[in-house]
Specification:
The chain is of the alpha/beta class. Helix content is 21%, strand content 39%. It has one domain: D-tyrosyl-trna(Tyr) Deacylase, Chain: A. The chain is globular and about 50 Å long. The N and C termini lie close together (5 Å).
């Protein structure tokens, strides 16, 4: 599982002009899955997202988590996180999980985040999405499990 996390002050995702998810302060999570991902990967990543202290405290030090700032997450599936562009000019996506495997992983990951008390908005798996964000910082992390 690969996840690109961006701390945002606002983020929104649209499909065919229709808003499917929008948040204020929180994290935009671009998530990709591979064929070896399992429940343990999802749980580890959900716990990591909930526990990360990436928001400023009264002294401006990154010391507060999503829960501390009443933040939300916007989760967007992105199989291209498993793109391999080492050879040639067109990336290979052979390591990305096929939809029949990735959809349940995506849905379970969203459910795990919600079970941990987060407000979660989403895009639509497999759709062409327009993602708009105001990056806060910018603070961007790459997480992999």
């Amino acid at each position: 599982m690969r996840l690109l996390l961006q701390r945002v002050s606002r983020a929104e995702v649209r499909v065919d002009g229709r808003v499917t998810g929008t948040i204020g302060a929180g994290f935009l999570l671009l998530v990709g899955f591979t064929h070896t991902d399992a429940e343990s990967h999802l749980a580890w990543m959900a716990d990591k997202v909930v526990g990360l202290r990436l928001f400023g405290d009264a002294d401006g030090k990154m010391n507060l988590s999503l829960g501390d700032v009443d933040g939300a997450v916007l989760v967007v599936s992105q199989f291209t996180l498993y793109g391999d562009a080492q050879k040639g000019r067109r990336p290979s996506f052979i390591d990305a999980a096929r939809p029949e495997q990735a959809i349940p992983l995506y849905e379970r990951f969203v459910a795990l985040l919600r079970e941990r008390g987060l407000r979660v908005e989403t895009g639509e798996f497999g759709a062409m999405m327009d993602v708009e964000l105001v990056n806060d910082g910018p603070v961007t992390l790459w997480l992999e499990r």
